[in-house]
From TrEMBL:
Protein name according to UniProt: Molybdenum cofactor biosynthesis protein 1
Originating species: Trema orientale (Charcoal tree)
Annotated GO MF terms: 4 iron, 4 sulfur cluster binding; cyclic pyranopterin monophosphate synthase activity; GTP 3',8'-cyclase activity; GTP binding; metal ion binding
Cofactor dependence: [4Fe-4S] cluster
TM ranges: none
Pathway: Cofactor biosynthesis; molybdopterin biosynthesis
EC number(s) given by UniProt: 4.1.99.22, 4.6.1.17
Reaction(s) this enzyme catalyzes, per UniProt: GTP + AH2 + S-adenosyl-L-methionine = (8S)-3',8-cyclo-7,8-dihydroguanosine 5'-triphosphate + 5'-deoxyadenosine + L-methionine + A + H(+); (8S)-3',8-cyclo-7,8-dihydroguanosine 5'-triphosphate = cyclic pyranopterin phosphate + diphosphate
Length: 396
């Protein structure tokens, strides 16, 4: 089967790229360690790195009722079955790491994708093998037609997961209806448990609203409720174990994200708290922390703590990338198509769509872009110097 051969190729490729993640010293419960020096512009620090382990795939892969077409397979054999769709560039917060302090120029509304355009492109991707879609922004819940979009997407044959990443400000009131409309998975962003810090980071009030949204999601049966936390030195790194404590009594998956560079967010390596350091802090207070076996396409390193309902994860984009197993593509609110979060290259799908391109012509454009995807993104210091759009434009 083509799918079996492609997955086998992906697994081989992932293992070949283990040199990019770390030197594997020993395998086991997440304690793989190696030493590595990072040196840039006079900065030299010694860090412990923790190797990525790839889950074993079954020898016989069940036949998929939505096989992946060549449109979604890059030149390295990676199958892209996960599409992130940014519904809007607007947001009701002004987070420092997402938006420059002076704000951003938003794309005029006529140049943004309409609901029908989003649905047509989504249907094309799903028909070609995409099985998971995540709705992002900006803040996706500020779109007045968010419920209709969810309902229409969830009814598309072949889509197995409809997820959303949200800041949670207005989610609590919208979530019951969104669940009825087919929203199956949630990531809620929360970078601090201290209201004053929240107001400083987001330049807005609403900390209690985010907590209400997390609790509402739990009450509605979302399990786990994923909570995204961007860790920044000197701001919230002292709260890491406080966040972990939330997993004791609630089915939440706390996901610690390394601070990443985007235009206007004044990224500085001194603000970066590397995965190795975060791991050490957590395991020191929670010694039963154990590594779970992750799927090859997983972006996070996942852990469980004895006696805790929830889980703890680390997203290590900067110090230990996971490009070898990447299965994600991005459709931006303005209709641009992006094959890598950190890659500056984009191609418009909106323009040919509005010029009358049929599905086959759109597939050719998408396939050409996917085939140009690189093996991995640049190192973190190079990324900091590479022109890329603000995160508010790209989508979370």
């Amino acid at each position: 089967m083509m799918m079996s051969r492609n997955i086998s190729k992906l697994t081989t490729y992932a293992l070949r790229f283990s040199k990019f993640t770390s030197l594997w010293v020993r395998f086991g419960n997440g304690s793989n360690t190696a030493s590595k020096s990072i040196e840039d512009e006079g900065l030299c620090s010694q860090m412990r790195w923790y190797g990525t382990c790839f889950a074993k795939l079954p020898e016989e892969v069940p036949k998929d009722d939505n096989p992946v077409s060549q449109m979604l397979v890059d030149s390295f054999g990676r199958l892209h079955t996960y599409l992130r769709i940014s519904l809007t560039e607007r947001c009701n917060l002004r987070c420092h790491y997402c938006m420059p302090s002076e704000g951003v120029d938003l794309t005029p509304k006529p140049q943004l994708l309409s609901q029908d355009e989003i649905l047509r492109l989504a249907n094309l991707f799903i028909g070609s093998g995409v099985s998971k879609i995540r709705l992002t922004g900006g803040e996706p819940t500020v779109r007045k037609d968010i419920e209709d979009i969810c309902l229409r997407l969830s009814n598309m044959k072949g889509l197995k997961t409809l997820a959303m990443t949200t800041n949670g400000i207005v989610l609590a009131t919208k979530l019951p209806r969104l669940r009825q409309c087919g929203l199956t998975s949630l990531n809620i962003s929360l970078d601090t448990l201290v209201p004053a810090k929240f107001e400083f980071m987001t330049r807005r009030k609403g900390h209690h609203r985010v907590l209400d949204s997390i609790n509402t999601a739990i009450e509605l049966g979302y399990n786990p409720v994923k909570v995204n936390c961007v860790v920044m030195r000197g701001f919230n790194d002292d709260e890491i174990c406080d966040f972990v404590e939330l997993t004791r009594e609630k089915p939440v998956n706390i996901r610690f994200i390394e601070f990443m560079p985007f235009d206007g967010n004044v990224w500085n390596v001194k603000k970066l708290v590397p995965y190795a350091e975060m791991y050490d802090r957590v395991v020191k207070q929670f010694p039963s922390l154990k590594r779970l076996q992750d799927h090859p396409t997983e972006t996070a390193k996942n852990f469980k703590i004895d006696g805790h309902q929830g889980a703890v994860s680390f997203i290590t984009s900067m110090t230990e990338h996971f490009c070898a197993g990447c299965n994600r593509l991005r459709l931006l609110a303005d209709g641009n198509f992006k094959v890598c979060l950190f890659g500056p290259s984009e191609v418009s799908l909106r323009d040919p769509l509005r010029s009358g391109a049929d599905d086959d012509e759109l597939r050719e454009i998408i396939e050409a872009a996917v085939k140009r995807k690189k093996a991995s993104h640049a190192g973190m210091f190079d990324l900091a110097k590479t022109a890329n759009r603000p995160m508010i434009h790209i989508g979370g």
